[in-house]
Design goal:
Blueprint (H helix, E strand, L loop, with lengths): L4 E8 L3 H17 L1 E2 L2 E2 L1 E8 L11 E7 L2 H9 L2 H10 L5 E8 L3
Antiparallel strand pairs: 1-5, 1-6, 2-3, 4-5
Length: 105
């Protein structure tokens, strides 16, 4: 079996109330994201970043795990729950950084 795909997304969202709305939408996404009628996100974690100069202003951190690269691509292009999340995030984010990988550990 192929290793899972780990995805890290960092946001710069200056307004605290907006960050809270984004986090609430991530909770909705975790409960409603489906592919072929079934949940497909292996795990999701999100929260405010601890203040630290190394985070370069990114103040909201998210980690999502997918069983395959195909599932992550579905998330990016077709998932209705992710589309709803992007509608909430888009107007309030100053910047976003996303990376993904298969763990060698």
């Amino acid at each position: 079996m192929a290793p899972a795909v780990e995805r890290i997304t960092l946001f710069k969202i200056p307004d605290e109330a907006a960050r809270d709305r984004v986090l609430e939408q991530y909770k909705v996404l975790a409960k409603t994201a489906v592919k072929d009628g079934k949940p497909y996100i292996v795990s999701a974690a999100a929260g405010p970043s601890f203040p630290d100069p190394r985070n370069k202003g990114y103040n909201l951190s998210v980690k999502t795990t997918f069983a395959s690269l195909e599932d992550m691509k579905y998330y990016d292009t077709e998932c209705e729950a992710h589309k709803a999340l992007k509608a909430v995030v888009g107007p309030v984010r100053e910047d976003v950084l996303t990376t993904y990988f298969e763990s060698v550990l």
